[in-house]
Design goal:
The protein is mainly alpha-helical. It has one domain. About 85% of the residues lie in helices and about 0% in strands. It has helices spanning about 1-5, 10-40, 40-65, 75-100, 105-115, 115-130. Helix 4 crosses helix 5 and helix 4 (about 75-100) packs antiparallel against helix 6 (about 115-130). The two termini are about 20 Å apart.
């Protein structure tokens, strides 16, 4: 299944743009996390930085990486919010695991928490939300 998906040129371009947006959003998340962590604590700083990063992610995907011809913006936003809720659960779980079990710093735990949800989110966004 994945072989046929990744040989399609348009899907390849969308994946590359999606990964570029993801990298930029990760940088936003780390910057916000590092600025807030001393003030509000680790879990809250992670959560706020995730919201800011997710907003950046949505706007960049919606209008550049995964442009969509759909005209039902409200439903599309709802589907996006569902996808990012799944992403948040995966990311926060991985963050806590990496902090508590592997003793990574908050910055490294944040960065390593992103990849586990990337494939799930790309599939949901590319083939459902921003189709």
């Amino acid at each position: 299944m994945f072989d046929s998906l990744l040989t399609d040129r348009e899907t390849q371009l969308r994946l590359l743009r999606f990964l570029a947006v993801g990298a930029g959003s990760a940088l936003v998340q780390v910057a916000v996390l590092r600025s807030l962590r001393p003030r509000i604590g680790e879990t809250w700083a992670f959560s706020v930085s995730w919201v800011v990063s997710t907003t950046t992610h949505y706007l960049a995907n919606r209008f550049w990486a995964l442009p969509s011809a759909r005209d039902d913006a409200a439903q599309q936003l709802g589907e996006y919010l569902f996808a990012v809720a799944v992403s948040y659960v995966i990311n926060l779980g991985a963050f806590k695991l990496l902090r508590n079990k592997f003793k990574l710093s908050p910055t490294w735990a944040t960065l390593w928490a992103i990849p586990p949800s990337t494939i799930v989110v790309f599939l949901l966004l590319n083939f459902r939300v921003f189709r």
